[in-house]
Amino acid sequence: MHRRIPFVVALILLTAFTVACSHTSVRHLARNPFQLDQPKQLSLKFWKFSYDTKASQDSFEVSGTAIPLVKNIPDWAVHVDELWLEAYVADAKGFVLARDLFILDPAKFEGLDKSSGVPFVFRLKPEKLVGGPLYISFGYRMTLSGNVPDENGGSKKKVFFGNESAVTRF
After folding, report:
1. From CA 137, how far away is CA 139, in angstroms rounded?
2. What CATH number is given to the structural domain containing 64?
3. Residue 132: domain span
4. Dist CA 118 CA 144 (whole Å)
């Protein structure tokens, strides 16, 4: 029993140190300088975000439309099984200062409208603002599906997955 106590203490200290040293980063994502009241666009691998940023009393509002990049998504992928969009405000090193998540309810979304996209509104409230430039990034996670013909004359369901989002670094 007494031999396990130093191991448990060391494990608790290592866990506390790891959590204290971790941060969420968007350094690997495309990002734009954070500017108010100027329409902007930012393209990732499967989605293009057209957006505008406004300041409110204690937060920022980012609103716009996420448009799927049709050339990168298979034609058969027409049903949304899962779709979430996320916005991030980060510092120059990519450390996330604020984030907001929008989850699309697939039951309310008949199919993937590849022309008009998905409207969104994010409210970003940084706990603290640092000196220096700020940046905006977006992320997404999607699972799309559709039926494709099989070799027996029937059809089978295929699934397409795409994900670009912030990561936790230690």
Report:
1. 7
2. 2.60.40
3. 24-169
4. 14
